[in-house]
Design brief:
By secondary structure, the protein is α/β, with parallel strands linked by helices. It folds into three domains: about 1-270, Tubulin/FtsZ, GTPase domain (Rossmann fold, 3-Layer(aba) Sandwich); about 290-355, no CATH class; about 365-395, no CATH class. About 45% of the residues lie in helices and about 10% in strands. Helix 5 (about 145-160) runs parallel beside helix 6. It starts with a strand and ends with a helix.
Length: about 400
């Protein structure tokens, strides 16, 4: 199944290019890690998701580029014309000559209604090229005006016109030091509108990615291109094809559907994050060795302690015992809080991945109940009800 990507504003278009470049590279770097048959299946699955293949074999990104100024789109199109790689569609762009001035309201209330018909017509043309549509992946920022304001407007239109197709918004959280003076206003308006119209909001923080570039990638003079490449690597790790548990030669066909099914069990809980390990420069990769057991141990503690990167993991934080608060104290007597989440999905990639041990007790004995008609949803409903009961007693 195919995904149509909508790149919005300067941020969305710059990241979008790096994302498609990462997808293209990954589909060919997969060679040598598996059999020829598996490699061909992987490439075919990747192409179906993110690219149209022309008769001459050229790959065209399933993407729509939107900005209210032409500069970034022209730069993006120019970068995507390297021979032997991939490109954007000839009529997959929409731009104007006046931006939104970092004003969410101008992007949402002026540019949106004024250009709604033209943009949605381009979306429809891209959708018609898909044999089977999984949904839309919308890349945008929160701080500016076009990406956030127009992005919220377009997402709302996608929900109205394609109610049965999934919508995931990838949102760049602005630097804490401030990128524009009104970024707080823009961010609040963006989130409140997207929460009504999007199925999932995937957040990536500029501050965190900047730290990864500095401390893990050893980049001294960090550019936006460096940041965008790390972002693209993280997105590739979750969107590229993965083996299904049932048959290693068949890849999951509905990428957005699989993510939503595992990570958004309730429409009120749709905010998602990514933790990626290891993050390391290519120059250091040849001198590093990893084991699945070690990676999983660190990844688990990153989740438990709410660490956004491997460096600086707080190993004092421990999962709480049943009914008890989280364990651990810092020297300053500040309490350590165990990070809670509604759902988590582990995606593993690499050699000998079938030997990774995720825990032998996962879903143990559940089959003894499902064979007599009890569904997994019955367990979830039961857990939810009892958690509410416990909370009620605790509030007495």
């Amino acid at each position: 199944m195919s995904i149509v990507t909508v790149q919005l504003g300067q941020c969305g278009n710059q990241i979008g290019f790096e994302v498609f470049d990462a997808f293209f590279d990954d589909s060919y770097c997969f060679q040598g890690l598996c059999s020829k048959k598996e490699n061909e299946a992987y490439q075919a699955s990747c192409k179906e998701r993110f690219f149209n293949e022309e008769k001459n074999g050229a790959l065209v990104a399933r993407a729509l580029l939107v900005d209210m100024e032409p500069k970034v789109i022209n730069q993006t199109l120019s970068k995507a014309t390297q021979p032997g790689r991939w490109k954007y569609g000839q009529h997959a762009c929409f731009c104007q000559k006046q931006g939104s001035g970092n004003n969410w309201a101008y992007g949402y209330s002026v540019h949106g209604p004024r250009h709604e018909e033209s943009i949605m017509n381009l979306v429809q043309k891209e959708v018609e090229k898909c044999d089977s549509l999984s949904g839309f992946f919308i890349i945008m920022s929160m701080a500016g005006g076009t990406g956030s304001g127009l992005g919220a407007f377009i997402t709302q239109n996608l929900q109205d016109q394609y109610p049965n197709s999934l919508k995931m918004n990838q949102i760049i959280w602005p630097f804490g030091t401030g990128e524009v003076i009104v970024q707080n206003y823009n961010s609040v308006l963006t989130l409140s509108h997207l929460y009504r119209s999007s199925d999932a909001l995937l957040f990536q923080e500029n501050d965190t990615i900047h730290k990864i570039c500095a401390k893990l990638m050893n980049i001294r003079q960090i550019s936006f291109s460096d940041i965008n490449q790390v972002l693209a690597h993280q997105l590739g790790s979750i969107f590229q094809p993965t083996y299904s548990a049932e048959d290693s030669l068949h890849y999951r066909r509905n990428p957005l559907g699989d993510l939503m099914e595992n990570l958004v069990p309730h429409p009120e809980f749709k905010m998602l994050g990514v933790r990626n390990i290891p993050q390391i420069s290519e120059n250091s990769l040849a001198y590093s060795t990893f084991t699945w057991a070690g990676l999983l141990k660190h990844l688990r503690q990153m989740l438990i302690s709410n660490a956004k990167m491997e460096e600086g993991i707080n190993w004092q934080v421990r999962p709480p015992l049943s009914g008890l608060p989280a364990l651990g104290k810092e020297s300053s007597n500040k309490e350590l809080h165990f990070n809670t989440s509604v759902a988590n999905l582990v995606i593993l990639r690499g050699k000998d991945v079938q030997n990774a041990d995720l825990g032998k007790q996962t879903r143990a004995y559940v089959h003894q109940y499902t064979k007599f008609g009890i569904e997994e949803e019955d367990f979830l409903d039961g857990f939810t009800l009892l958690e509410q009961v416990i909370a009620s007693y605790c509030n007495l």
